[in-house]
Amino acid sequence: MSTQDFLVELGTEELPPTSLNTLASAFQAGIEQGLQQAGLSYQSARFYASPRRLAVYVEQLQLSQPDREFEKRGPATQAPAQAVEGFARSCGVSVDALQTSEVGKGQYYVYRGIEPGKPASELLPEIVNESLNQLPIPKRMRWGSRRTEFVRPVHWLIMLLGEAVVPCTLLGLTANRKTRGHRFHYPHDIEILSPQDYVTKLENPGHVLVDVSKRREAIRQQVMAEAQKLNAQVVIDEDLLDEVTALNEWPVALTGRFEERFLAVPSEALISSMKANQKYFHLVDGNGKLLPYFITVSNIASTDPAQIISGNEKVIRPRLADAAFFFEQDRQAPLAARIEKLKSIVFQHDLGTLHQKTERVQKLAASIARLIDGNPGYAERAAELSKCDLMTNMVFEFTELQGLMGYHYALHDGEPEEVALALNEQYMPRFAGDQLPVTKTGMALALADRIDTITGLFAINQPPTGSKDPFALRRQSLGVLRILIEHQLDLDLEQLVSLAASHYPELPGSTDVVKRVIDFMLERFRAWYDEQGVNVSVYLAVHALRPTRPLDFDKRVKAVSQFSTLAEASDLAAANKRVANILAKQSYNQSAGVVDKALLSEAAEQELATAVELLSHQAKPLFAQGKYTEAMMLLASLNPQVNRFFDEVMVMADDEAVRHNRLSLLAHLRELFLGTADISLL
């Protein structure tokens, strides 16, 4: 089988840096999918990308499709001769070349042949074009007088199969073998003779590091080397590193400095300005304290780097000066002075203003603080101030600093430290895996704020849909669950949601809002445990009992998950399912039966009854203490008695009293396992 390497490169204007990797990987995935659908084998594929190009390299691509055997069915053998001759002509053969085949109860003429595979060079243009059409581009643009659309204007196209150019025209460009070097270091065409030359020729003489991972690592090493010169530590945010990698073709790290007076501003504000606006890496000392330096990555190896450094210092100075000005201006009035301003900000049309939301959260946070042995006064004060920093200049300019600036301003105003900390902790966790509130006041406020939002939106019949969740209720629910479970807060969602609902006036969906909110929040556990590798049947077994205390729910899941690994688990799960079916068919009231030992005539049922009674006394205290794992390990010992019972005892005995007694025994067995979960669903 003949193979050649394949290369496609599309040259563009500067691509969006935050989506460069997504576009490049999607370009590769689309081409690989097209090759597989076409039946073209290859050894491997990878993408290359820079601000001005997307490329895919395929190694050892099969040069043509394999030949394909086909069968075409014609008329029945009893058909008129003219029909048979017409079929033969349509196949391009004589009647003698046709064969017969039995299909069902009839005999038919068939033509069997071999369809030659198409050359890869004929298939590649459409494969590449289809991949480009499927790229995740939210909004395509046109340029000039062309009707062509792409994420950015396109300028050149390479398509090489081995040393040969694949003839085609895509996006208005005719494929050739010429790429372009760095916009400043080598603004010339570079002829690529074969795919193997691509990376090396772009690097030298082109001054383009087209391998994204190598360019990314080069930036990391350069930035770290710059920090070492100052005996400092550079903080490398991986997302920022990705973005800087997507902004440069020939990266050169340079260190600049800003005035130390700006360090009086909270470091988070300075860092936010440097990262978001200028894409700078910041430096800290051994104690993690911000230093008055930054590292920028230039897209050029300048003969006079001092000019580039000076230019960046001039750009960052007014931005930091703005932050310092906002900080000073905001501190001239206490946070509490902004409470009235919240009345002018609508939280949600049917749920009122931010001021009204704050009043509701005050009551709920104070109640939660009492439940977790916190300080209700602190919780109420923190809730009262919780949204005030949204009215400050600093947060208006740097929205990502909400909460954090509230913390700094509250400390400046002389508020208790725990109240100040809670103003920042109310937003924790901000994303999956983020840190949680540490103070009890922060926990109470974070829980109250989220539960108020979720309850309110359900009460106006605006829950999330499959595609829309504008208030991020799924994320907020997971935040509630994480806080309750990871901080071991044994609170009942039913109690919390009922408290939240009581603070609202009559709303259209308030009738069953508590149940709907709890069901929604408990459903978040499915994805939670799926990410932890817990089998969905374990979640369903616990969810069937609908425990409304998340900490209790989690303990049950962990117990059932461990139980499911035991050798006895499958037998006991099957037995529980069998018991559930028997009781359901008999419409048996599980709470009604009392086992009469005098009616236990079979040795197997006597043995099971004794074991159930003994383990009931041992397990129920464990259930009450939430020690579900210990209880389930204990119940696993019932497996021999349960198996023997079903092997030797006829449950549906003719004698009604005996039958009823045996159903009662099974009901007690079932009730024992339901102390943790419905393991019949395992």
Which features does this protein show?
single chain; 682 residues; alpha+beta; five-stranded antiparallel beta sheet; four-stranded antiparallel beta sheet; 24 helices
Record field, number of beta strands: 18
Low-confidence segments, given as residue ranges, are none
Main sheet: strands, sense, barrel:
5 strands, antiparallel
What is the count of helical runs?
24
Helix % is 40-55%
Rough outline: flat
Amino-to-carboxy terminus distance: 50 Å
How is this structure best summarized?
By secondary structure, the protein is α+β, with helices and mostly antiparallel strands. Helix content is 48%, strand content 14%.
Describe the structure in your own words.
This protein is an alpha+beta fold. Helix content is 48%, strand content 14%. The strands form six sheets. It has a five-stranded antiparallel sheet. α18 (536-543) crosses α19 and α20 packs across α24. The longest helix is centred in the middle third of the chain and has 26 residues, at 305-330. It starts with a strand and ends in a 9-residue tail after the last helix. The model has no long low-confidence stretch (mean pLDDT 92).
List the helices and strands and how they pair.
Blueprint lengths: L2 E10 L7 H19 L5 E7 L2 E10 L5 E9 L4 H11 L7 E5 L2 E10 L4 H14 L20 E8 L2 E2 L3 E2 L2 E2 L3 E3 L8 E3 L6 H6 L8 H18 L3 E2 L3 H10 L4 E6 L9 H12 L2 E4 L5 E9 L6 H26 L15 E3 L3 E2 H18 L4 H10 L7 H5 L6 H9 L4 H9 L14 H20 L13 H14 L6 H10 L10 H19 L4 H8 L6 H14 L5 H17 L17 H22 L3 H8 L3 H10 L7 H18 L9
Antiparallel strand pairs: 1-3, 1-7, 2-3, 4-6, 5-6, 7-8, 9-10, 11-12, 13-15, 14-16, 15-16, 17-18
